[in-house]
Amino acid sequence: xxxxxxxxxxxxxxxxxxxxxxxxxxxxxxxxxxxxxxxxxxxxxxxxxxxxxxxxxxxxxxxxxxxxxxxxxxxxxxxxxxxxxxxxxxxxxxxxxxxxxxxxxxxxxxxxxxxxxxxxxxxxxxxxxxxxxxxxxxxxxxxxxxxxxxxxxxxxxxxxxxxxxxxxxxxxxxxxxxxxxxxxxxxxxxxxxxxxxxxxxxxxxxxxxxxxxxxxxxxxxxxxxxxxxxxxxxxxxxxxxxxxxxxxxxxxxxxxxxxxxxxxxxxxxxxxxxxxxxxxxxxxxxxxxxxxxxxxxxxxxxxxxxxxxxxxxxxxxxxxxxxxxxxxxxxxxxxx
Amino acid sequence: xxxxxxxxxxxxxxxxxxxxxxxxxxxxxxxxxxxxxxxxxxxxxxxxxxxxxxxxxxxxxxxxxxxxxxxxxxxxxxxxxxxxxxxxxxxxxxxxxxxxxxxxxxxxxxxxxxxxxxxxxxxxxxxxxxxxxxxxxxxxxxxxxxxxxxxxxxxxxxxxxxxxxxxxxxxxxxxxxxxxxxxxxxxxxxxxxxxxxxxxxxxxxxxxxxxxxxxxxxxxxxxxxxxxxxxxxxxxxxxxxxxxxxxxxxxxxxxxxxxxx
Lengths: 336, 261
Known about the structure:
Chain A is an alpha/beta fold. Chain A is built from twelve helices and 14 strands. In chain A, β9 (205-210) and β10 form a beta hairpin.
């Protein structure tokens, strides 16, 4: 089949006065794990809900494996699995019963539903807890059960809406390995997340969403490369930070900011400007700036996220490196 | 396609409700405790100061308590539907090729079975308190049939309202309103002593129609008012059930399809 697993064109949706999606374009090839990254309210959940046939778009089209989510909703429903932000499982019955019931509702028949439930419970480490009431499950186990519940029919396309939000690190890892396993088996996964490390670890392609539209797309490496190099400089004690900033700003074309300590500066370089460590050292030295440590590194997805969405999610003590006008004013020194 | 799968979906959906009851026998015990407490409080505490024309108060009261058992289907259905909508259960089911009518029908039918189980001990308690079947077995079975039909309608009302509300907490608070709704009837006292306008409201209350119809079918004492439903309680009760089902079944199915927009 040559159709992409997901093809979204000019998708728009508003709820009252709120614009949730504004001409979104998104293509996910068969077998890929695509991460949808974006701040709260960027429209991530709405995309998933449109693709899962739960919400009708106002304009644009959305196809899952070549089938239209509005006109061919029934066909789409037969190919997808959905695990939302909540553990959508019944607490008053056991894990096994939850899966068997959903299997029956998928019209597998009682015997096949039972067999498939058994198979999934042991594959995802839930066999021991299978006959306990879900009420007694930990948050991580519930989410795992919820994920498993979306796999009963071996869906071609799986939608995971913030699958690990609110989970402890160990449970997150368990969900991650489950998703990787599915991807290995060829399931196409569309995953929304606010956690950049999650997108970095799981997704082979990332689309960054902001205000209902895609602002960037690519592999994690491409996205990081596109925003330049991260330069971190630790100054000697008697060096003037303002002067160091001025030099760094000229060299990188970026806006240096101080960390929690005023002697630690960081800046993301302009990607079109080639940057080499020897040159950096020479120029700082020539300007009389004494650095104890200089490091060039690939920016994290956090940096990508901030650079692309300009989100207010500025880390404590730092500043938004892309905000105009914050370049060399020593505003942070008084705060630090 | 989903029309063909409706019985399968209804069966699975009913199974879910029954499994919940099987794992939590306390739920059933709690539903039994309510009528028992009501017989105590109304039959013996308030009843000691209430006299009704044509017979003993406790015999007058029991059809009222039966109707209350039926009305009690509304609140859990409403809270349950709102909880499912709020926790994503409804979303998951909507993203599957499942018959919505089947899902909802299964739930309400399972609830009907629960109601039938609760009605039996309630009747036995009533018997011990002096309530009797005086018109023969046929009309009595008719009365229990009517009570189950009313419970069925109430459960659909609850499902529809729960899906419309969509929030478990709001549904819980709204559910408290069933108490004044149950009081503003002829279930506990004859309407004759109420101010005229209040008596009219109480007599047009569907619960009153069911209660009066049951009194008639069981041959228990009653003091019907002068309004049409009070004079023709069986017709009124059946009409009310038909009307509630005609409005709330489509509303529930439509709300199910639209939950979360």
